[in-house]
Amino acid sequence: MPSITRDQVRVPADVPAGARETYIDSYMAATRGSGRLMLFACDQKIEHLNDDFYGQGIDTADAEPEHLFKIGSQGVCGVLAGQRGLVSHYAADYPEINYLVKMNSKTSLVPTSQEDPYSPQLYSIDTVLDLRDNGVNVVGIGYTIYIGSEYEASMMTEASQLIADAHANGMLVVLWIYPRGKAVAAEKDAHLIAGAAGLACCLGADFVKVNPPKGTDAATSAVLLKEACAAAGRTGLVCAGGSTVDASTFLTQLHEQIHVGGAVGNATGRNIHQRSLDEAVRLTKAISAITLADYSVEDALKVFSGEKDFTL
């Protein structure tokens, strides 16, 4: 089982001395002492509106936002990521969850063919600190950048300042970075995704969430991911989970992303929350068994099926 001690946490140089211990607390909590990140992405209610939460193939429990928090509470996750308002509605009832507040979001109603994507900041860092001061276990913030958009400079500027502000207050930052816009011909090109990962490092992010690259006849997605993981440097790279697939396929992909590609975790939303509570909880445990404890795919599937339990 991978594990790190507090003195092994690399604290960025922009974290002031007075916030150093808080940053280490945040890092250890978010990675469950492993140095790897299991991020439960719950920000799609703005991004995809209700498409991801209601309809064919989606469990009826997912229609209610509290489903997300029940999963986060009963399952095994590093952090639950969601917008400030969503977190503020439910966090008092689920104080045991580690939260990451998503600082920007946009809907998917305006297509890229109509206008390049722009996701501006929704609120200030002070409102997140107020949540933390009110007892919510906020360990970090998140922000999405669409590189290739004509608005990329504005998003990079906002993200850069948020990273400085978060580090000044001992919090982590996860950047969602996706190549997207009329200038982008192939959003899942491995070389372009590696560029996104390097950008995250240059902005000072602690982790970056990217889409896994599209495999080719010459190399699998996991092999192609190596370029991005190298480009990310000391910014830990995790892959988005994408649309829901069967558990065996998902867990196999995750295992390869970590052990072949070099990823340091995962950021999964739909593959978890579109299932019933019981199944979703078991899948968080199976994902965490691979991410946080180096289980094989076979053993993780036993966790998912209920043949064996997994706790930290």
The major β-sheet equals: 8 strands, parallel, barrel
Task: Please give the order of strands in the largest beta sheet.
Answer: 1-2-3-4-5-6-7-8
The gyration radius over C-alpha positions equals: 18 Å
Instruction: Return the CATH topology.
Output: TIM Barrel
The secondary-structure class comes to alpha/beta
> Averaging pLDDT over every residue, what do you get?
97
Describe how the helices and strands are arranged:
Layout: H1 20-30, E1 37-41, H2 44-47, H3 66-74, E2 79-83, H4 84-90, E3 99-102, H5 125-133, E4 138-147, H6 152-168, E5 172-179, H7 190-203, E6 207-210, H8 221-232, E7 236-240, H9 247-261, E8 265-268, H10 270-273, H11 277-293, H12 297-305
Question: Top keywords for this entry?
Answer:
alpha/beta; 8 strands; 312 residues; TIM Barrel
Task: Write structural notes for this entry.
It is built from twelve helices and eight strands. With 312 residues, it is of the alpha/beta class. The protein has one domain: Aldolase class I (TIM Barrel), CATH 3.20.20. Strands 1-2-3-4-5-6-7-8 form an eight-stranded parallel β-barrel, surrounded by eight helices. Helix 4 links the parallel strand 2 and strand 3. Helix 7 packs parallel to helix 8, helix 9 packs antiparallel against helix 12 and helix 11 runs antiparallel to helix 12. The chain is globular, with a radius of gyration of 18 Å. The model has no long low-confidence stretch (mean pLDDT 97).
